[in-house]
Amino acid sequence: MNLLLMLLPSLPLVLGTAALAGRLGRNSAGGGVIGTCVVALLVVLLEPSDLHLSWLLLGTTLALDEVSRVLLFCAALLWPAATLAAGGLFEGRDGRRFGMCWLFTLSGNLGMLLSQDLASFYLCFAVMTFSAYGLVVHKANHEAWYAGRIYLILAIGGESLLLAGIFLLAAEAGNPTVADIPQVFAALDRPALAGGLLLTGFAVKMGVIPLHVWLPLAHPAAPVPASAVLSGLLVKGGLIGWLRFLPSDTEPLQLAADILLLLGFAGAFLAALAGCLQQRPKTVLAYSTISQMGLLTVPVALLLGGRLDPVTAMPVIALFAGHHVLAKGALFLAVDHWPGARWRRLVTVLLALTIAGLPISGGLLAKAALKSTLIEPLPLLVTLSSITTSLLLLRALQRLRETASDQPPPDTLATWSWVILAIAAVSLPWALADGDVRSYAMAASGLIDASWPIALAGLIVLLGARHLRFTIAEGDILAPIERLVRRMLESVNRLRDQLGLERAQAALEQGHRRAADGKDRLLGLLERDLPEQLVTLLLIGLLLLLGILLIAGG
Amino acid sequence: MSLAYQAMPLWVLLSSLLAAAVIFALGEGRPRLRIGINLAAALIKLVLVGIMLLGVRAGHEFIVRLPLMPGIDLVLQADALSMLFISLSALLWLATTIYAIAYLEDSPNRARFFGFFSLCVAATMGIATAGNLFTFFIFYEMLTLATWPLVIHRGTQQAMRAGRGYLCYTLGGGAVLLLGIVLLHGLAGPQDFVAGGTLVERGESHPLVLTLIFALLITGMGVKAALAPLHGWLPTAMVAPAPVSALLHAVAVVKAGAFGIVRVVYDVYGIELTQALGMAEVLAIAASVTIIYGSLRAIWQTDLKRRLAYSTVSQVSYIALGVALANPLASIGGLVHLVHQGLMKITLFFCAGCYAETHGIHSIDELDGIGRRMPWTTAMFTLGALGMIGLPPLAGFISKWYLGLGAVAAGQLWVIGVLLASTVLNAIYFLPILHRAWFRPPKQADDSLAEAPVGLLGPTLFAGFAALAVGLFAGSGWSPLAWVELLVQREYSP
Amino acid sequence: MTEALPVLLVFVPFLAGLGQFVLGRAVPWSQQFVSGFNLLLVLLLLRAVAGGEPVIADLGGWGEPLAIHLQADGLATLMLLLTAVLAVAISLYAIPAFGGHARSAWQFWTLWPLLLGSLNALFLSRDLFNIYVTLELVTLAAIPLVLLAGPRKTVDAALRYLLFALLGSLIYLAGVALLYAQAGTLDLALLPAATPTGSLAGPLAAALIITGILIKGAILPFHIWLPAAHGGAPAAVSAILSALVVKAAIYLLLRLWTGALEPLVSIAAGQLLGLLGASAVLFGSWQAFRQSRLKLVVAYSTVAQLGYMLLFFPMAVTAAWQGAVYHGLAHGVAKAALFLAAGNLLYYLGQDRLEALRGIDRPLAVSLLAFGLAGVSIMGLPPSGGFTAKWLLLTASLQTGQWWWTAALVAGGLLAAGYIFRVLRLAFLQSAEPAERRDGPVPGRLMAWTATALALLAIGLGLISAPLLDLLGDIPGGGS
Amino acid sequence: MSGIDPFALAAAGLMAFGLYGFCVCRHPLRRLLAINLVGNGVFLALILIARRLPDGPDPVPHAMVLTGIVIAVSATAFGLALIRRQARPEDDGND
Amino acid sequence: MMLLDGVLALLLLLLAGRCVTAASLLQAIVAFIVLGLLLALSWVRLQAPDLALAEAAIGAGLLGVLLLGTWRHLPASGIHHEFPWPWHGMKQAVSALGGLALAVMLALALHETAPEPAAAGETALAQLDAAGVKQPVTAVLLNFRAYDTLLEMGVLLMALIGALIVRRPLQDGSRIAPATLLSPSLARLFLPPILLIGLYLVWAGAYSPGGAFQGGAVLAGAGVMLALTGLLRGASVDGLWLRGLLALGAIVFTTAGVLLVPVTGHFMAYPDGLVTPLMVLIEFSLAISIALSLLLLFTGTPGLARSRP
């Protein structure tokens, strides 16, 4: 029964390998994903008990917890929708590769949701990260490669930090499972260091500023379905990591938690503002993800800092995250739907506003839930963030309209799956949220709270959008950093030239070659032995010397 | 236990030694018979090793002792550490043999090649089963000699230059090693390898001499283990045919050096004495420097095999590092890397050979879009490369995991930095290759599927999946990791 | 009965040589019997000596101090064994190499048993003056053998060899005369007791004797006659000369230094000899490395290798003793194999310029294998006799604290690797253009496999040293 | 003995002259002569040594001299043959 | 007498110096031959008449003829003029100093008195009766140290083989050497007495100065004389008999040494009764071999033939 858990990561892995072998067509790849997701839904429903596999890796534990259960459910909806939308990507010359990366990403993603021990989590996390690289660069143009490079650099940087943190953790307890984490941290010599490393490592994936720069590059570069998955599910890897492998309420992590809180809010606002200055709709959506993740960081930071107790925090986080998975995933997929019929655009607008917290929508519930857990004055900040979020999404819609191409809309199956996704995005929070939140959301004050920021934002857009000429580059702070790095590299190269290292080496090699060539000529000159006349002289000398030595010695 | 059973290490040694003799005697004439003998010998060895593995697990003693000089014996024994190395060699020998048969099809001088190839493995077996430093040295030098004809097999000027470099380094190293051994012998008399070392009492009376000897021994071994700055021969030696490089980098030469370092630290000096002499730190620093340096150099290489060679320089030092950290966890990491690095590096070299043999690709620039034409090969290369970077669930991760844990446990946090830097650098030089292979469009118009022949691909797949499996199933009782854990337990328990 | 063995060892080859001479034509198979019988005799002797007591034959029965004694102790027996084994191999090799009915074949098959007998006589001799005679005997058998390669080519080498050899033996004889004046006896066993110390004549005699032997043994700087002679001779002869003849001189030096001259020798003189040996090792190896002719490479290698044996004198401990003697054995076997293998290459190529060796690995694989295996021993790499010897010498140098010899030992080994691999790499080198080459007849199996057998034996000596070293025992005088 | 025996001086002188000649002469025949001078010096020395026995000269050194002379002469004859051959390597016909 | 000794020694030294330093090669050779004769004379003075005989016959006589013969065969260019005086160069000067130092050391060493009597010599004289010959030197050579003598025969034989290898092919019918002062008839006249002297010397070796070597040398001298006058010539073919005779000395010596082991219990020992005849037999066979070897060394040919008139 609980072997189903095992099936989840391994089934796509097998399929991916088959895809590599060229044995998997478009339909079977999609079928595989859907099949896997059916299993995932089964798992969500059946709630199998934990699975321990000591022989696998360093001892693997697979299980569902509160957050991952929600996320698994969302993933089981998003992945099929994205797969169906991907359609043609599985075909053609690069289809095989795409299929492989896609399935491997799925495998890593699901595995990450399930694995409860450090090593296998890290494994799945890495599989997901590196397979997703294939998705990011799939278009194989310079933009994609650039985005891919930045993605990799940050991913590897993050993974390295994680690894360091993991070493510190695992040195204490081997391969700790989630349950061991509090004790492990309690026993650590340098809990702040280990915690900080893990925190930062996962933060890369979460797009916490200033580690967010890969997101605005990767999303527009990747194909639309890939962006959906990336934005919807991959970034949640960081969240899961934080929740599982960092202890709540630990004294040494206070400072880190505070910083995280700060960065969370900073992300929520700054990313939104930066996003408003972007041109491409997918870039804007990417900034929206950064902003939303910033908000999601807030409860986590509070949890870590001990200001929130897990029992209340976890459902809220699950709710918010799950909603974001569905809504953002659907919104990304909507990019392809925009050029189609009017109802498609309507759904898109609805989705955008859901995220902004439109009354009655799931988004409002998510935000309300979030606010309900916060202490003053944080709820106010959340409310304020609604303004920026709304602005951002309106900007996205605006850019969608302005840049819309005349591609044909996706086929029926893809469309229906998208619609289901959208519906789920709107409705899921209702199923999950508890009664207080629901009633708050339905109450008048709640409605007002939700409405005025959107209205304000609409007003701003109406008034100001035309005057907005100022844009910033995708990846905002990346450009100056890159310039700096490039200049440093150049100066290093100059230094190499000045020191003449290359030239010296070349000269050395040339010298070797010349010596090898000229050796025979040299030999002719040196072949001679001692001259005989000298030898005879030495004879007398040696005789005398030996005689003297012997006489003296005797 | 019958005598014949006890003499198992000897049979293992002879299985390839005799094969070499027969192959030499056969000459060029009868390729089929030669291939048959080659495979049969490899299989027999595998079976023998399997039997021995069971035996060692069951606690049987395998030891052969032949008097060589007055007071000095040739000792062949199979303890847990040697079994680690033997199993790796036996397994990879089979794979490499199959690969080499396919690789060298219809090329000249095959009898010579396979003869020395078998000899090379015999020497490796000898190194693995050596029961004292003297025996170790015998096979260590034999390995040098058996490998040289393989390095220069192509007979080109470049190969000759590589061969010369190889000889200069390894023979020089051998001389230094010999000095160390003689000195040690003079100081302490003949001594077998014993877990925990045998020199503890002498450590107090002759610390200086022992330090000097240690330096000599490690320098001598370090040449083969390619510890910087003694690594110079390795990158040039990559002109050898791919199976040779594979063998050189994964099983035989480099590993022999690393294995020697392990032996010296564990079974001659013992961890405690090594630490007491302060040499553990020195070794750790040397290994760390090599790790970083090798990786840095690899970044700027444009030839695929050259880059892999520098990668080896870097990776093999993990073993030394693990040993030098003098801590059970790090030791596990170092020792298990002996196997893991072998599997991963052999995969990579097999792939490089597949590229070269199927499409004539040697330079990294030419790899664009190769994933489309040779998906399996490229997939295996990917496995190997990601493993080298240290990503789970591949073999390299397990090693790095334990090394990292060991570093923390030993309180040497700077080692973590080294490991991370190495990870990053590995990523810097491996990922662009993967990127090119998978995501760049091919330069030629023709991008139809053109995989390597089965004879090449089979061993590559085997090695690649093995590199995956040892990582994935590291927790199982039969993984190298489990074996190493057992081993380290013995070393550290008094 | 064992008393007869030393005498038979001298007389049987001698009579065979004389018979061959009288017969007037080549009968190669008879020599096979002789060398086989010789080996049998040595093995019997080996068994007799293994007990620890030397086998002594009193010629004429006049007893000490007058009569000449033949004595086979461990050292002598080992050298006899080396000679006997090499004799079997070289005799076999010479069948195809000297076959036919040419006059030179008759001369070879006459001189070779005489040389064998002379060598046996030298190793067995226990009398200073008799040693002089046997030294001359060996020299005068060896030089005509060199000439068998064709007088026109070798006459210079032979003349130089003869002049140095003659001078060397006369200087030796001068030493013998002075020593006899002091001690009144020529018997090696009686000399140490009879030699008065503190006089001028004794040490001077020792100096003369040692110098004479050094000239005969081609120790630097008196090696200059050797390369041309050994390089120019026919392969089988080169093997005999390098492996045995010069070795005989060093053997004498070892024997006299630890026996008859023991009261006279001094530490400083030992250091001087060691210095000569070390210089020979370095200089000879370096020269070998620079040669452009294959057989000269091997010949200079002999110059170098003989130097190792001299390292006994400064150190003079058991390990050094064993190392030096064992080096003699190992070098003998390996050098014979090298020369025979080189001879095979020469036979095929018609010349021995190194460049001509390019890419000959296929037709001459077996000979090259022999060359390589023997090279292993020459380089002192394990497992081989050369390694065992080097190990012992290294041990000795570290034991005595005379670490400077260590440097020579190590450097010599590396240089040896240099010249051996220089040859081998050429064989492996694929020439870009089809080299102009005289593809002579591929050497027959007998020629190829005798070389290989010797090479394998050189390797094998690394594995069976224990009984041989046991036989050799400690330094006769107990060490100084 | 009261003074230095003149023959002892002569023997030493012969040997020294021989060695000197071997050193400085280039022609092989001269060097062969020089070697024979050394030989003569040695023989003279041996005969001097033989005189030291009270009852009649010591026959052992005498026998050594006799043997030595024959060996020296035969080796010298061989050397002369070599010198002849070396001096005219080109003509193989007319002796 | 001391004066004569001194003069002789001085002459020896002068001749040695002349031999080394003479500008012309011929002068050097002549000086060497004269030195050999004077040496023989000195040895008579030093109570070694048999050695003097040998030196005169072999060392001066035969060797002189050989040297002169070789000199005649050298190319007639002036290359063998050398000026090896000590002041001719640095090398010469250093060699001279070294030689002088050596000479001083040697002289001092020879001057040293022997602290102990020569045990071997005394034993030899004491056991002379058992040796079968009256002459001590012969006893040592043929009995006490017969082994040396046997090996020495080997040296002679191998020197001969060596000389034969280097020789150039001989054209049949050519004379060994051009005519000399000796006319064939004179040679024929001298031959019988010389042969007789030689044989006597061999025979006398058992009792008085003389012996196989001296006798053999005289016999060889007779042969040389015949060869010089053209009565005997070298031949490029050798017969079984000639080779047999060349090896005769060594073979008889060895056979006697081996065959009598059962009787004496030692190699190269002779039973009391047979010792004298055996000595004579051995001496004669040795003499024949020596004479033939020396003669062939002179002719430089493997065989001998009588010239047709």
Radius of gyration of chain D, taken over Cα atoms and rounded to an integer in Å: 17 Å
N-to-C SSE string of chain A, H for helix and E for strand = HHEEHHHHHHHHHHHHHHHHHHHHH
The CATH architecture designation of chain D is: Orthogonal Bundle
Q: Which CATH first-tier class of chain D would you pick? A: Mainly Alpha
Using DSSP, what is the number of strands of chain D? 0
Give the biggest sheet of chain A. 2 strands, antiparallel
Content-based structural category of chain A = mainly alpha
Percent of residues in β-strands of chain A: under 5%
Largest sheet of chain D: none
Strand content of chain D: under 5%
CA-based shape of chain A: elongated
Write a compact overview of the structure shown:
The complex is a heteropentamer of chains A (554), B (494), C (480), D (95) and E (309). Chain B is 76% helix and 3% strand.
Labels describing this entry:
heteropentamer; C: 480 residues; mainly alpha; two-stranded antiparallel ribbon; globular; D: 95 residues; Helix Hairpins; 3 helices; disordered C terminus
Describe what this molecule looks like in 3D.
- The complex is a heteropentamer of chains A (554), B (494), C (480), D (95) and E (309).
- By secondary structure, chain A is mostly helical.
- Chain A has helices at residues 3-20, 26-46, 66-86, 95-114, 118-136, 142-173, 181-187, 191-206, 214-221, 224-234, 236-245, 254-276, 281-304, 310-337, 342-356, 362-373, 378-403, 412-432, 435-442, 444-464, 478-499, 501-526, 532-553; strands at residues 51-53, 60-62.
- Chain C has three domains: 1-125; 127-265; 267-480, no CATH class.
- Chain C is built from 19 helices and two strands.
- In chain C, strands 1-2 form a two-stranded antiparallel sheet.
- The two termini of chain C are 35 Å apart.
- Chain E starts with a helix and ends with a strand.
- At the D-E interface, helix 1, helix 2 and helix 3 of D face helix 1, helix 2, helix 3, helix 4 and helix 5 of E.
